[in-house]
Design brief:
Distance between the termini: 61 Å
Helix content: 25-40%
Strand content: 15-25%
Number of helices: 18
Number of strands: 14
Structural class: alpha/beta
Shape: globular
Length: 474
């Protein structure tokens, strides 16, 4: 069985049992010894010598599930036919579907939605292509595009394996913001071909959400598509993460009583998200940012083959600090980890400025375990839902696309991203704000509304909104 998330769940074991070699009591004992809790047993087939049963078992995590399956395989007379869990069952047949907005009940309905009546609409759009926004799904539809090269923490697993993630993203678009989104997983990793394909399908969509495309290719793909298309293009792994991190930092700085602009910030993991996060901080007025990767602090005068790192060197680290993380983090106010587990040590935190802020974003295992860091930090955030202050892109992309679709923005500017970050931060009131609540829940219904409104306002101010701004009424 493929690995699923390490959280409590229910698995269903379909077992074929030879009655003369094993009893159900032996099976139940083995499951219990492995830590499982049997909650249901269903006989699916029975004969004189063999019984097939579906046994539903509560398990705490994937390791316990594997242990139970392994114990079944070691019992004589037991054959494991299939193992499924709640997550797998939820994915059977996919998680999304296309449904009509109006029913077709008779010939008259058919003639209006299809031929011959639809021809009038086609010609209206032909004469004025801008009418596609009002007469087709374009006005509310986003393409979620991936090549499967950087899927979650799984790496380059290919387009088919990326589909469940993109389907999930489409679900979140719809449930959170009412945006219709569709997964487009491409069987190519060629930069030029990806750009060509996305441009070719763009007439159908009001926006493009790029997802899980590996660095550094993702930079060129996004930049080219922004320049060559007249609809918003947004690489969520870069900018969604950056927007939500900035939102959290705005509130964390309030908690510790510091001006964010004056803070020394150390960022580890200078990939797509790390660079986008740094650009957001620079836009917010933060100037003392030091990026650290495997080779140490990125600094001017070194010379980097990676053009993104060369940009980074020219625009950050104003004091020209050199050395590893432990050396450059001394006196830092904020640590942002976008790298991997175990990168940050307790001694590193102890060397930071008073009331340190630590955002350890590596997922599922952060740069330092929150339990280790807690005695030494003032504010801690992670990318995980089982700790306070989860930094989750879901707080960003639904509201941003709701806003850009509603005002028909041609692009998403840095000002619009800043507005989104401030809007997310504003959802947490002054009375609610504390070390353990600096960022709202993804299920807070105010988030999408506030983000979309702020993004639209910034779009009008930036001059990229193409829909007439509604006049205010008293």
């Amino acid at each position: 069985m493929a690995n699923s998330a390490g959280a409590a769940t229910t698995i269903i074991l379909r077992l074929e049992m030879q009655k003369d070699l094993v009893t159900f009591g032996q099976i139940a004992t083995a499951i219990g010894d492995a830590g499982g809790d049997i909650v249901a047993v269903d006989v699916t087939r029975a004969s004189k010598n063999i019984t097939t049963r579906d046994i539903t078992v509560n398990v705490s995590d994937q390791n316990q599930s594997d242990a139970i399956v392994g114990s079944m395989g070691r019992l004589p007379g037991v054959k494991v036919i299939n193992v499924s869990d709640q997550t797998f069952l939820l994915h059977i047949g996919g998680k999304i579907e296309v449904t009509p907005k109006i029913p077709i009940k008779n010939r008259d309905d058919l003639s209006r939605v299809y031929t011959p009546g639809v021809a009038q609409v086609c010609m209206a759009i032909h004469e004025d292509p801008s009418k596609a926004h009002s007469l087709t799904i374009k006005r509310n539809t986003v393409a979620v595009v991936s090549d499967g090269t950087a899927v979650l923490g799984l790496g380059n697993i290919g387009p088919e394996a990326a589909m469940p993630v993109m389907e999930g993203k489409a679900m979140l678009f719809k449930q959170m913001a009412g945006v219709d989104a569709f997964p487009i997983c491409l069987d190519t990793q060629d930069t030029e071909e990806i750009i060509r394909v996305v441009k070719a399908i763009a007439p159908t969509f009001g926006g493009i959400n790029l997802e899980d495309i590996s660095s550094p290719r993702c930079f060129e793909i996004e930049e080219r598509l922004i320049a060559e298309l007249d609809i918003p293009v947004f690489h969520d792994d870069q900018h969604g993460t950056a927007v939500v991190i900035l939102a959290g930092l705005l509130n964390a700085a309030k908690v510790v009583g510091k001006n964010l602009e004056d803070c020394k910030v150390v960022v580890t993991g200078i990939g797509a998200a790390g660079i986008a996060c740094t650009k957001m901080l620079l836009s917010a007025g933060v100037t003392n940012i030091i990026g650290v990767d495997r080779e140490g602090a990125i600094a001017r005068g070194v010379g980097y083959a990676n053009s993104a790192w060369e940009w980074y060197a020219q625009n950050t680290n104003p004091l020209g600090l050199r050395g590893n993380l432990s050396e450059v983090i001394q006196g830092a106010d904020i640590f942002i980890g976008l790298s991997g587990p175990g990168v940050l040590k307790v001694t590193d935190i102890q060397s930071m400025a008073v009331d340190p802020i630590v955002f350890a974003m590596a997922n599922p295992t952060p740069e330092i375990a929150p339990e280790e860091a807690e005695p030494y930090v003032r504010v801690m955030a992670t990318g995980r839902s089982d700790y306070p202050n989860q930094i989750n892109n879901v707080l960003c992309f639904p509201g941003i696309f709701r806003g850009v679709l509603d005002c028909r923005a041609s692009k998403i500017t840095q000002e619009m991203k800043l507005a989104a970050a401030k809007a997310i931060a504003s959802v947490v009131s002054e009375d609610e704000l504390n070390e353990y609540y600096i960022i709202p829940s993804v299920f807070n219904h105010d988030v999408v509304e506030k983000v979309s409104e702020a993004v639209m306002e910034a779009a009008y101010e930036s001059g990229v909104a193409r829909r007439r701004k509604p006049s205010k009424t008293n």
